[in-house]
Each structure stands twice: as C-alpha cells, then as structure tokens.
Amino acid sequence: MGWFLQLSPPVSTHHVKWQIPVLQRTLSTGLNVLKKITLLGDRVKDWDSYPFSVQAIRCLKELRFRSRVCFFAGENGSGKSTLLEAIAAHYGFGREGGNRNFQNDSTESNHSVDTLVSALRLSFDKRTGAGYFLRAESFFNTISHMDDLDKEPAYHAPPISNFYGGRSLHTRSHGETFFTLLELKFQRNGLFLLDEPEAALSPQRQLSFLVLIHDTLRKHKDAQFIISTHSPVLLGYPGAQILSFDEGRIHEIEYEETAPVQVVQRFVNDRENFLEALLKETPSLFEKKSG
Questions:
Q1: Which of 53, 217, 262, 289 is buried most deeply by CB count within 10 Å?
Q2: Cα–Cα distance between 85 and 236 in angstroms, integer?
Q3: What are the tens digits of pLDDT across the range 42-64?
Q4: pLDDT tens digits for 180-198?
Q5: Residue 179: CB partners within 8 Å, gap ≥ 6?
Q6: Which CATH architecture has domain 13-281?
Q7: Confidence of residue 16 (pLDDT cuts 50, 70, 90)
Q8: Which range scores top for mean pLDDT: 2-11, 88-97, 165-174, 241-250?
Q9: d(CA 199, CA 195)
Q10: Please, which residues have CB within 8 angstroms of residue 241's CB and are 6 or more apart in sequence?
C-alpha cells in the first residue's frame, strides 16, 4: 500500500513541529459539509428508552462542528457510536456501512437508533450526499453482502468488486481490507463517518491514515471527517475538534485531556509501577472461591 509509513529512521521532531501549522491551516480552508446537529426534544416520545437513556444523548441540545476533522471520544457505552450511527442513517448511508448507493441492513438491531434519527436536525454548509460510512463492527457483513450481490450481477452493471480494487475484500487481511477501503472511498469530497477504524489498523497504519486524511483535506475543500475512536494516535491530528461523551454530556476537550492519551502516557512512562498497582488491585478471574 502506498500509504504505509516506514518509521526507520525516526521522523525528525523539528520537521513535525514545522508541519503542524500547515496542517492547521488545511483544516481552516474549505467548508464543513455538516456544520450543526440539533436534537428536537418535542419529537422524543420516551426519554427513558434507548438511545435517550444514554446520558450524553439525553443531554444533547445542539452540537456545532468547527473543524473539518472531529473526533468523538469516550468510554464504551458513552453514546459516541450511537450518535455517529444516527448521523449516518439521517444522511442516507447504509446502516452497516457504505454510501447512499450501497446499503446493507441485516439485523433489526441496526434500527435501535431510529427514534434518535427522527429527532435530529442536521444543518449543512453544503449537502451533496457524497461520502462514506465505515462501521468497523459490521464491516465483515457488508463485504459478505457485496460478494453475494456479485454472484448474481445486475444486468449491464459491473460487479461491485470493480469499485473496491477488482476483487473481493475478503481476499485481503483485515487491516489491508480497511486500508483498501480508505484509499478507494475516502479521497474525495464528502462527509466521511468512521466508527472505531483503529480496530483493524496497526499503529503505523494509523499514522498512514492521518496522512491520508491530511492529503484528502488538502486536495478536496468539501471533505469532512467525523470519527469515533479510542486511538491516541488518531486523536492527535493537529487542529482537530475533540468531543468527549464522558461525564454524561458532550463537551469539547483538549488532546491531553482524553482518557486514551492519559492511560497510555501513564503506562509507557511508568509501566512496572502501573501494572503492579493495577494487578494488585484487580482480583483474579480464575481465583477459586472458598467453600
């Protein structure tokens, strides 16, 4: 893959510092495709049922996107993937990933956010319908659906695999599959939604993804990325807006305030003491109970 970064010899720190203002200027040019989300409370019939039972979703009133790269950060169950899925469905993307022209919807659970979708108002600077939704959790199902459709191709229409590198994405490794999709579908204008893309990407591939994002923003003035992630590498994109879903509310925080960054820093800086304290305080899962 052309985007794979080789990290030997090490990257010059001086070079990185020089590049950061350039990256930030890239984010300030062009339009946010999606500029604001509003929750219309009068459309919510039951505040005690999912997804409104999630505190951060319940407290949502208005969310403004000030950068063309925005990260949703927060602990599992905090609501970040829930809101991202609702945005994707509202925009017309496939429930399990895809764009407005290709959709897969294999389980009823995909519709658990329907009440949130109907209560959202999305405001755009420029709505074209272009873009892509990558949902790591269900991407395997989406590829299988593509393969099934290609077994009986539509009349006078090329196989779907022609648009994904000419062969089934299942023939590649998990990480190669993800990055093939990123290279083929995310380098253009549009709204790009990604739910935990780091699930299949090594740290080096994550750095390559940051380069891809930067190149896309530089070349395409109407490209916007909204990414739900736990990755301290991805969260580090200069000038990105980071929205935390922790503490029961959606609020903007700095990179150094994110939980993934703080945990990794503590682990790397003092690994032995960190693990000693962690394992001393955590009871063994295999410890036999007396009696």
A1: 217
A2: 23
A3: 999 999 999 999 999 999 999 99
A4: 888 888 899 999 999 999 9
A5: 1, 3, 201, 205, 208, 209
A6: 3-Layer(aba) Sandwich (3.40)
A7: very low
A8: 241-250
A9: 9
A10: 65, 66, 67, 69, 70, 71, 252
At 120, list the tokens: 């959202």
Q: Residue ranges of the domains in the chain?
A: 13-281
pLDDT band, very low/low/confident/very high, at 121 (cuts 50, 70, 90):
very high
CA 67 – CA 247 distance, rounded (Å): 23
pLDDT of residue 20: 52
- Residue 197 and residue 232 in contact, taking contact as beta carbons nearer than 8 Å: no
pLDDT at 200: 82
Which residue type sits at 211? V
CB atoms within 10 A of CB 123: 14
* Of the candidates 135, 170, 132, the residue with the CA atom closest to the CA atom of residue 150: 170
User: What's residue 111's pLDDT?
Assistant: 78
Neighbours of 110 (CB within 10 A): 18
3-state secondary structure the chain: CCCCCCCCCCCCHHHHHHHHHHHHHHHHCCCCCEEEEEECHHHCCCCCCCCCCCHHHHCCCEEECCCCEEEEECCCCCCHHHHHHHHHHHHCCCCCCECCCCCCCCCHHHHCCHHHHHHEEEEECCCCCCEEEEEHHHHHHHHHHHHHHHHCCCCCCCCHHHHHCCCCHHHCCHHHHHHHHHHHHCCCCEEEEEECHHHHCCHHHHHHHHHHHHHHHHHCCCEEEEEECCCCCHHHCCCCEEEECHHHCCEEECHHHCHHHHHHHHHHHCHHHHHHHHHHHCCCCCCCCCC
